Amino acid sequence: MRIDIVIVLLAMLLPFISLKSNDLTAYFYWFAVTALYLLYISIRRWEVE
């Protein structure tokens, strides 16, 4: 398994461990993590091609 996938999965599990709130904080966090990962894989694809 690639290390970047493991890092993203651990980052997505973080709200369940540390952010115990009833508002939309976890969803905004997931949105930010997903956006950063998509940016990372798009930049990485540009470097490979």
Observed structural traits:
49 residues
What would you say this structure looks like, in words?
Keywords: Membrane, Transmembrane, Transmembrane helix. The chain is elongated. It has 49 residues and is an all-alpha fold. The model has no long low-confidence stretch (mean pLDDT 79). It starts with a helix and ends with a helix. It has two helices and no strands.
Range of strand content: under 5%
Distance between the termini: 22 Å
- The tally of domains stands at 1
Overall mean pLDDT stands at: 79
Helix/strand structural class: mainly alpha
Shape: elongated
Instruction: Output the number of helix runs.
Output: 2
The major pleated sheet works out as:
none
Provide the gyration radius in Å: 13 Å
- How many DSSP-defined strands? 0
Order of helices and strands: HH
Give the topology, please.
Elements: H1 3-17, H2 25-48
What is this entry, summarized?
The chain is built from 2 helices and no strands. The protein has 49 residues and is an all-alpha fold.
